[in-house]
Amino acid sequence: MMRRAIITVKGIKAGLLIEDEHGYEFAYDPSYAEQANAQPVSLTLPVRREPYRSERDLFPFFDGLIPEGWLLDIAELNWKINPRDRMGLLLACCRDCIGDVGVEDITESQS
To answer: 31: which residues sit within 8 A by CB, 6+ positions away?
Structure first.
């Protein structure tokens, strides 16, 4: 099963985060990466043309956006999401994150 999210910086589409059977991939949108003033999503994910890949874990920056503690408990109960489903939690909980970065779930109907 593939899940995808548009990653925005200050409301502008910066890239695409994908989870599939091979792991995770984050790639900056080419038009965003070409901008002279393009801000990175994170200092750990500087703007570049090549995608970032992780075979196992969600990139630490995106994992850090997921709520913790009692707020995570509420998300797990309300949306019935397994706490190990980090992409599912990111998609459910991080649309309106604090800060410049946003996560927008891409559903099959939007493909």
So the answer is: none
Please choose, from the candidates 23, 31, 24, 66, the residue with its C-alpha nearest in 3D space to the C-alpha of residue 45: 24
What three-state secondary structure class fits 39? Answer: coil
What is the C-alpha separation between 39 and 77, in angstroms, rounded?
A: 35
Round to the nearest angstrom and report the end-to-end CA distance of the chain. Answer: 14
Cα–Cα separations (whole angstroms), residue 92 to 44, 47, 79, 80, 84: 23, 25, 8, 10, 13
Token code pair at residue 86: 């980090």
pTM of the predicted protein model: 0.89
* Neighbour order of strands in the sheet with 52-54: 52-54, 23-28, 12-20, 3-9, 101-106
List phi, psi (to 5°) of 28.
Answer: -70, 145
pLDDT in tens, 13-31: 999 999 999 999 999 999 9
